Each structure stands twice: as structure tokens, then as C-alpha cells.
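Researcher: Can you fold this with pyridoxal-5'-phosphate in place?
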Amino acid sequence: MEDMKELTWVEISEKALKANVAQFRKLIGNDKLLCPCVKANAYGHGLVEASRIFLESGADWLSVNAVYEARILREAGLTSPILILGYVPLSSLKEGLELDTRFTVYNYETIDRLSEEARKLGKTAKVHIKAETGNNRQGVLSEDLLSFARHIQEVGNIEIEGLSTHFANIEDTTDHSYAMIQIERFLQADQLLKDNGITVKIKHCANSAATILFPKTHFDMVRVGIASYGMWPSKETYVSYLQERNSGFELTPAFTWKAKIAQIKNVPAGEFIGYGCAFKTTHDTKLAIIPVGYYDGYDRGISNNYVLIHGKRAFLRGRVCMNMIMVDVTDIPEARLEDTVTLMGVDGEETITAEQFGTWAGTINYEVTTRVNDRILRAVV
Ligand SMILES: Cc1ncc(COP(=O)(O)O)c(C=O)c1O
């Protein structure tokens, strides 16, 4: 990284991503499909970079939110099955078919258009019906499920390959009773289809927390997002894991965000720093300017916390700007222009985790890494 021209960049640890895939493979066994969730630029880890590593280390499928993500993956030469989790506009269904993606479905309009486009292309579309089990986001209500499935069978050129659902309250709590109700409803949905002669090859409902905590949610495939990147879904999930399972499952974070010092200057005592004159120096201060701001995903709420320079904490002074932050390096005399700054990750004995960063910013690890601007280079190390 020494001669990099970038002012800020993200390093993705290949070793960490591979270790996480290996942990999940051990957990779910070889007969279940492992489908990392790579939407939102692979939770900020770089869509193509992370997907390639996942597949090389034994993942079977990938799941994305939208057709454009599938297009990027196909253009990068990745040939694995891709499941689109989000809503695909009717006008994009044809492209999805051409890219050979699977669709998550819950609207009649989608089915009719998909059937028409598949017929024109001489293809059979593969769909995964999303059963509504209590999240009340996407999904088909239980009373509509059978007629929806029958409609799919009648229109032609569509195969019902999968049945899925998504948990509403599995990582935000140590009380998993609502998740258990959802599993029950999911089983009932499957049974209803079976009783009416509709068998589905791939049933799936497990996100990271479900996969880690409840083997009975693994069914035929697991859709693991956050934990594939080495982050626990929440403190509650970690505590539940320790209480209920504690069987040697480990996660390794893969994300390090760095930048270079853009200026070092001496600011006398009694001077203001940054917008709103929000900070006033109480002593002669050696200040480093770091070319990263809220445009890059460095949350403005972080203003009173720190970055790492030469393994030491350098506290922010003044407000986070659009493209810059200012930090106090008075006690880091060795700091020089273009020295490396760790915004998130490990430097010597110090670590800033995505969880810590999230606490500072009043949000969760999921949002922290996905919000780091896609424009910033992801370098696999
Ligand atoms: C439908 C669906 N499945 C799976 C996931 C992965 O969830 P997690 O990152 O908690 O593993 C998500 C993430 O939001 C999702 O929306």
C-alpha cells in the first residue's frame, strides 16, 4: 500500500473471508447450500472481490438485491447461481433472465411478465416464492400462497425452485419466541404446497443469526450476510450463542479502512478548529488533517472519538466535514505527512471495530461498512 495514490482505501482480508466461509461450511455441513449475501457492495467489502473469494473458498450461491449487482458479477466472469432478493422492476425481468438469475417473487404482475419474457427467450425462469411469516416486508400471505403457486404453474415457462422467508426479530433480541413462530409458519407454508402436489427443491430462511443459533433453520440453503464478513449480527446474537451453543464457532473481521495524513500543523492554544468553531484548543496543539469525511461514509456523529496513528489514539477535533477530519497528534510526535491512519481496524495494540464505530455513530455494524462510499478502493490483502 506504500505507494498508493489513494488518499483513503479499504483493505479486505482474503484470509478472514475464507476463514468465515470455512466456519459456516463446518456449521451447516456439505449437503446444504451456502449462499453469502453480497448486496450493498458486499456489505461494503467490494461486490466482485468478496464474491470471488467466497466462491473460491466453497460458497455455492450468491444473493444480491438487484439486477445491476448480478450484471456486475456476470461481467466479472462469476458463473454461480445468483438469487435476487429485492424487487425487480417489470422492465428489468428480461435482463435478469439473460443473466440467468433466480428471482424472489410475491407479485402476480411479476409472474405474468416473467413468463412472457421467458417464453420469448425460450427459457424457464427459476423463482423462489417469498412466504410472509411475520416480517411484513416482502412476501405472500399464507391465505394467498396456494393460488399464487398455482398461478405460477399455470402461466408456463416458470419453475418454482425455492420457498423462502426472512426473520423479523432474530438478531435484535435474546428472546427468540417470535422467530420460532415464523419457523412454524414457514413449515406450514411448505406443507400446504406439498399437500397440493407442489414440491420445492430449495427451502431457505436463515440469515447469519439463524444459521449460527438454530440448525433447524438451515433447511436446504442459508443466506448469510454480516457474519460472512466476520461480524456478529449483534451483541444479543453473541450472548445467545455463548449461552445456547458455544461450540467453537469463530468469526474474523475482514474490513480495515485507512487514509493518509494530508497536513500537519501547529495550532496555538485558544484557537478554534473547524465549522461552527465547535472546538477550542486548550493547549498548543499539533493537528493532523485527514482527507476523509461524511461523503466517504465517516459519520458526522463520530466527532468526539478517535482514529489510530502509529498504534495510538488520535482524537477528532471539531466537526466531521464533508471531505475532511482533523485529529490531535500532539502526543504522537512521530506523525508525518502521508503517514497511514486507521479509521477502522487494527493498528498495533489498538482496534476500532465496526461495532465500536457504530456505537459512536449511533448505528449498527451493518450500516457502518455498507455506508463506506463504493467509490473508495477495496484492496484485497
Ligand atoms: C432477505 C435477506 N436474506 C438474508 C440477509 C442476510 O442477513 P444477515 O446479514 O443478518 O446475515 C438479508 C440481509 O438483510 C436479507 O435481506
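Model: Folded with pyridoxal-5'-phosphate in place. The mean pLDDT is 97.
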